[in-house]
Amino acid sequence: MHDTLPLLTKTPFPAIRRTRLDTLQVNLGYKCNQSCVHCHVNASPNRTEMMDPDTLALIPRVLAARGLGTLDLTGGAPELHPGFRDLVRAARAQGVRVIDRCNLSILFEPGQEGLAEFLAGQRVEIVAASGSAQLTPARSGRSRRHPRQPASAAWSPDPDGESGG
Predict the structure, then answer these.
(1) Assigned CATH class of 21-128
(2) Residue 43 pLDDT > 90, yes or no?
């Protein structure tokens, strides 16, 4: 193996310094209601890998033990994890800021009724993406984009525009 440290010290690349850890980013699983070309984890409705309950239960303990201020939830669609809402509640009960990396179309999926109200009630911050303009069809042979899903991430969760936005 080549010694690379001398090569790095001779470049103008700025030094990297570690500061205090403040954010824990957690991927809850690869299941998603969409199958986007750009997805770096190849999430889709056909993926079944989800964080197990024992590991999920560690997250609030790690937040408390490390004094972390932010929990950043990602996936797939993190909202599809059966423990998502309990995890959000546990983090918020500790005063932890929660970020949900949400594809927005999840708000229209069966079983997700009340999700927008839950996120708002818990004061969860949403980093929104509306998916790819070129969704690949799921194995079912159809695109998973909801027909009422806007092309833009700047939209109201309510199709009639009454829930904010």
Answers:
(1) alpha beta
(2) yes
